Amino acid sequence: MAATRPSEGAALLAEARAAFRREFGSEPALAVSAPGRVNLIGEHTDYNAGLVLPMALELWTVLVGMPRSDGHISLLTTSEHADEPKRVEFSVPTAEKPLEPGLPRWANYMKGVIQHYPAGPLPGFNAVVTSSVPLGGGLSSSASLEVATYTFLQQLCPDSGAAISRAMVCQQAEHSFAGVPCGIMDQLISLFGQKDHALLIDCRSLEIHPVPLSDPGIAVLITNSNVKHSLGSSQYPIRRQQCESAAKALGKKSLRDVDMKDLEIGKELLTNLEYLRARHVVSEIQRTSEAAAALSSSNYLVFGRLMVESHNSLRDDFEVSCPELDQLVMLALSVPGVYGSRMTGGGFGGCTVTLLEADVATRVMQHIQEQYKGTATFYLSKAADGAKVQPL
Ligand code: ADP
Ligand code: MG
């Protein structure tokens, strides 16, 4: 069985244009795309000012649109998984009448970016959103929607200032309009991803170092468990809070400023749960640094071992895995030619990421499909570029 081939960008764009014509009766004038991402290692470290190592995927959110002169914004999503209604209309925000989050939920990610966009005045516009990033699958359809929206607004009204601040505006949109207190990784990788590279991102300094990932002999396989336990959304803010209180108890600004020695010395100051959460974050930051070095020297065995250690730490110390993710990791690791596998994303469902020899990918997918107690779907993707304006 084959992995779902990432929709070709061109096909996605054609779909968005056709939907725009149907809905608004004219050709769109502008098109942009922003990718989803997979995090190879460095989980739950971004909001601890730590290191992450994601790559942008050949899965995209595409936005096509056209300015209009009456100060109204009309948005349509073609996604069957977005909540109803699929079309919303509202006025361009003003100081007196700012936008507020509401229903449908999917539009909040876009409204948040429009509200926080740093330049203006924005004109009204019509836009259609189409995406090949699975919604809610842990591959960051949310950040790709925010970044696509931001990139679209830049075409209507150029922004000024640092590129990094774009990621912050998108993150702010997710915090205040979607109610998700996410870190900065997803927005950064969707904006700045580089073809054939993973990005080592330091979430404290916001420095980005590309790490080559173009060896044709290896592949990155993403396996969607197709489960999403509702616990996830409530546990995420709790984990964040536990990490913050652990850092505070240790007298540090964030867990980035703590090493294993500090943690052992300060153990008495922490509750057992705070200690375990901190142990995951501190060790994961170290693993991410080692993994980036291993990838730079094509040392896939070491990289794979670090992925497995990351998974075990997320399962045992951070307690964000679930039986389905554990089973997917175990099944992948039982096939020769697999270097490493781990849950990726927030946890409690979503996807695993596996580093393997390219020619065993089919065998791994077959094995998982036969043995996994649920229904898995697969993505084999190379590392892609970040957000782009698409010529029409
Ligand atoms: P993930 O980012 O892992 O895919 P999230 O729960 O963070 O999962 O974000 C998923 C939500 O983002 C969806 O439920 C929907 O509200 C919104 N979303 C993402 N992509 C789209 C899209 N193409 N159309 C409409 N809504 C979208
Ligand atoms: Mg998300």
Tell me what you see in this structure:
- The chain is of the alpha+beta class and 392 residues long.
- It is built from 11 helices and 12 strands.
- β9 and β10 form a beta hairpin.
- The radius of gyration is 21 Å and the shape is globular.
- The two termini are 35 Å apart.
- The model has no long low-confidence stretch (mean pLDDT 96).
- It binds adenosine-5'-diphosphate and magnesium ion.
**Taking Cα atoms only, what radius of gyration do you get, to the nearest Å?**
21 Å
Portion in helices: 25-40%
Distance between the termini: 35 Å
How many strand elements?
12
Poorly predicted ranges (pLDDT <50, ≥5 residues)? none
Q: Assembly state here?
A: single chain
Q: Helix/strand/pairing class, anyone?
A: alpha+beta
Give the number of helices. Answer: 11
Would you tell me the overall average pLDDT? 96
**What amount of the residues lies in strands?**
15-25%
Query: SSE order, as H and E?
Result: HEEEEHEHHHEEEHHHHHEEHEE
- Biggest sheet: strands, sense, closure? 8 strands, mixed
Shape: globular
Query: What ions, cofactors and ligands are bound?
Result: adenosine-5'-diphosphate, magnesium ion
List the helices and strands and how they pair.
Blueprint: H1 9-24, E1 30-41, E2 51-68, E3 72-77, E4 87-91, H2 106-116, E5 124-131, H3 141-156, H4 163-178, H5 185-192, E6 197-202, E7 208-212, E8 218-228, H6 231-249, H7 260-265, H8 272-296, H9 300-316, H10 323-333, E9 338-344, E10 349-357, H11 361-371, E11 377-380, E12 388-389
Parallel strand pairs: 3-5
Antiparallel strand pairs: 1-2, 1-12, 2-5, 2-6, 3-4, 6-7, 8-10, 8-11, 9-10
Helix pairs in contact: 2-3, 2-4, 3-4, 3-5, 6-8, 8-9
Bound molecules: adenosine-5'-diphosphate and magnesium ion.
